[in-house]
Amino acid sequence: MSEFTPIEISTWSAYGQFYYYTEMAPTSYSVTRDIDVTRLRAAVKARGIKFFPAYLYAVTKVIGGIKEFRIGLNDGILGIWDSLIPAYPQYHDDDETTSLLWTEVSGIFSDFYSAYLTDRKDHGESHGILSSKGIPPKNSYIISCIPWFTFESFSLHNHGIKDYYFPSFEAGAFKHSADRVFMPLSATVHHATVDGHTLKCFYDGLDMLLAFPESWLDK
Predict the structure, then answer these.
(1) Catalytic amino acids?
(2) How many Å apart are CA 189 and CA 132, to the nearest integer?
(3) Whole-prediction pTM value?
(4) Distance CA 203, CA 33 (A)
C-alpha cells in the first residue's frame, strides 16, 4: 500500500516556485533525449524476456528516488507519494485502439515482471479506454511507447488539465548508430514541481541503471 505524506507549505523551500508556476504562469514542458539501451536490449534478449516491462520498471525505479516526481494530490491535499505506479496502454491489433492498464512496482524486477505478465494475460485483451482491471490508483503516472517510428522530439499537451503534477513519459522506436542502440525518451513535467536540474538527475539516474542491467534484471 502506497503512503502519502502531506507537504507543510509554510516550511516548504520550493513553495515559491510551486506558486509561481501554478498561479501566476502555469507551465509544463517536455524534454526528449536519446537513451542508450544497448546493454539493456542485449540483456533482455539473452534472458528471453520482454523489453517493455524492463523499461517500465527502470523508469519507475528512478523516479522513485526523486521526490519531486512524486508530488501530487490526494483528496485535494498536496503531498509526496512514497512510490508511483506505471499506467501504460495496451494496443489492440483487431480494432487499432488502446486500453490503459497498470501494474504496481513493488520489490525486485522478477516480481514486477511476473505481475506484468499476469496483468497482460488477465486484462490485456479487454477493450475500452480502461482495461478490465479498472481505474488506476491515485498515485499512477502515464508511461507509453510509440514503437512504430522514432522521433527527435515529442510534446504532450494536456489541454488545460489542472492540478496534475506527475510526469508522463513517451518512448519511440529504437535508433541504431554504429554498434549502439538508442531510444528516444520524452519526459513531460510540470514546472511547478520539476525544474531542469531535477530532470537532469532523472536522466542521469536512468543512464546509470541502464548501463548495468544485470544488477537488477537478475534479482
Answers:
(1) 191
(2) 28
(3) 0.96
(4) 8
